[in-house]
Amino acid sequence: MIGKVLRLVPDPYRRLIPRYIAMIVLFAVAQSAAYVLLMPMLESLFEGDLGAAWTWTAWIAVAVVFVCIGGYQQAVLGIRIGAGMMQSLQTRLGDHIAVLPLGWFGSSTAGSVSKLISGSVRDAMGVFAHLLAPLLTGVLVPAGVAIGMIFIDWRISLAMIISAPLLYLVNRWGQGVYSRADTRAHQAAEESNSRVIEFAQAQPVLRAFGAAGAGNRGLQNALTVQRRGSRGLVLASIPGLVVFSFLVQLTFILLVYLAITLAAGDSISVPAAIALIAVSSRFIDPLNQAADLSTAVRGAANAADRITDLLDVPPLAEASEPVLPEDSSVSFTDVTFAYGSGETVINGVTFTVPAGTTTAIVGPSGSGKTTLLRLASRFYDVDDGGIDVGRNPISNYPSGALMQQFSLVFQDVYLFNQSIAENVRIGRAGATDEELNRAAEIARVDEIVERLPDGWETNVGEGGTSLSGGERQRVSIARALLKDAPIVLLDEATSALDPQNEARVVRGIHELTRNKTVIVVAHRLATIRHADQILFLDQGRIIERGTHDVLLRAEGRYAAFWNERSRAAGWRLAPAESGHR
Ligand code: ADP
């Protein structure tokens, strides 16, 4: 159980552990010696032999000095190891999360990660900070007292030695019940954490559909399960503790009974029996304390399991010999991909986007268009086939270098709870004010800035809630402009923007994509028509490809799609008219 936590201790601190344990043992041995020495001391005192009583007291004093040394040393070392472990684990988890595939991050992981980094790490380090020492002492002191008793009366010692394993087994049984309940309660807490985050983020949608209140069944169910889990946890800890406490008390009564019987049979003196009863209580108390703490240690071991599970999620394989891109082309070769163990959503897709050209991906909703953009930027690794960027497989780039190649303008624009200036600067941290202003001017973010009360310094609220959808998209375009990467991955807005916003977004995108390699999930007819290459995707396969004119003339799925969309938009275009930009 403790082993799981020990494995998480970083190297420099792991070397301190033997000393830490040795100090706990010194503390426990000295303490049990002090307890056992009480017997002859009390006996001498009751018999009026003051000289002997003083001698025994001196020995007790020596034991107490060792108790102090061991206690102080183990406390200092425990805190050092615990604090070191906490710091290193948080760094390790942070570093690990930074190299996980981006696709790993979903709404359900947000809850577990935050709980893990704050709660589980603290639970695990608690083993060193305040659990292990009292737990080990709770086991070692009774063991020491039981062994020490051999020198005083073997029958008492035997009774103690027999009762200890029995108490241990009962305690283990209680722990097992508790551990299962703890895992269930933790899962329920994680689930409800995620549902609360989702509930908060989805407020606009829920309200629009009149489902914001008690109507949110997912959240309600998760909270009910969590409540049940917490109650189950409390209930599960009761049987173990009750049975254990009962047995501990029974052992104590047995020891008292033995002491009285021995005294009655003249095997030991009455003062010795009284002293024995006093020492027996010292045998019992640490056991009780250890039982209480072992529940917390079990919780810490579970926390260690959760931390290990996260550290075991395979990171993106990093290139052993990083390469440099030769140009800004992108090519997919026979790419197949499924989300997790789900259905195949991309099926044998092959295409090349030559440097400096635009490829538009069109097709019905759910056909895998957005997934192609995610795969190109390595949010996920493909299951089969390969993707090259700049004529090298994307897995040969360190992840930072690969992302340098891309500007991403996706629909789910996330704005941080910071000033609008800081939000745009995410595009390129070292950008000058002139560059910032230029990007802002092209994406018409300057207009938004003028309207905001504190201009550039206005905080945009969590997730950018104080901006409209079109405005958020303009900020993301400004970021991308500032980054000025050679390849633009663009997911055009499906939702209708108001005409003013739309005109500005289009202008920004036009600037952003000039002379760049562009892969665009296209919805606007103008974008589609002007693309150098159009890929028509259906159920994860490219079923038609070519330029607008060629595809229109082929009178296949694309032509049908185009005619329907242009009729809906009120466009009338003959194929011959559409050849120029
Ligand atoms: P499109 O952009 O063409 O609408 P997507 O690429 O978003 O299509 O989705 C393709 C398929 O993959 C759909 O069936 C969708 O439900 C599924 N899908 C998309 N994202 C995920 C995800 N994160 N996890 C599991 N399935 C997903």
Can you tell me about this structure?
By secondary structure, this protein is α/β, with parallel strands linked by helices. 63% of the residues lie in helices and 10% in strands. The protein has helices at 2-6, 11-14, 17-46, 50-98, 107-148, 154-201, 203-208, 217-264, 270-312, 369-376, 399-404, 420-425, 433-442, 445-451, 469-483, 499-513, 525-530, 548-554, 557-568, and strands at 330-338, 344-353, 358-362, 384-389, 392-393, 406-409, 487-491, 517-521, 533-538, 541-546. A 6-stranded mixed β-sheet has the order 6-7-8-3-9-10, with helices on both faces. Helix 6 (154-201) runs antiparallel to helix 8 (217-264), helix 8 (217-264) runs antiparallel to helix 9 and helix 13 (433-442) packs across helix 15. The longest helix has 49 residues, at 50-98. Residues 573-581 have low confidence and may be disordered. The site of adenosine-5'-diphosphate (ADP) has 11 residues, from helix 10.
Produce the secondary structure layout.
Layout: H1 2-6, H2 11-14, H3 17-46, H4 50-98, H5 107-148, H6 154-201, H7 203-208, H8 217-264, H9 270-312, E1 330-338, E2 344-353, E3 358-362, H10 369-376, E4 384-389, E5 392-393, H11 399-404, E6 406-409, H12 420-425, H13 433-442, H14 445-451, H15 469-483, E7 487-491, H16 499-513, E8 517-521, H17 525-530, E9 533-538, E10 541-546, H18 548-554, H19 557-568
Parallel strand pairs: 3-8, 3-9, 6-7, 7-8
Antiparallel strand pairs: 1-2, 1-4, 4-5, 9-10
Helix pairs in contact: 3-4, 3-5, 3-9, 4-5, 5-6, 5-9, 6-8, 6-9, 8-9, 13-15, 15-16, 18-19
The structure holds adenosine-5'-diphosphate (ADP).
Adenosine-5'-diphosphate binds next to helix 10.
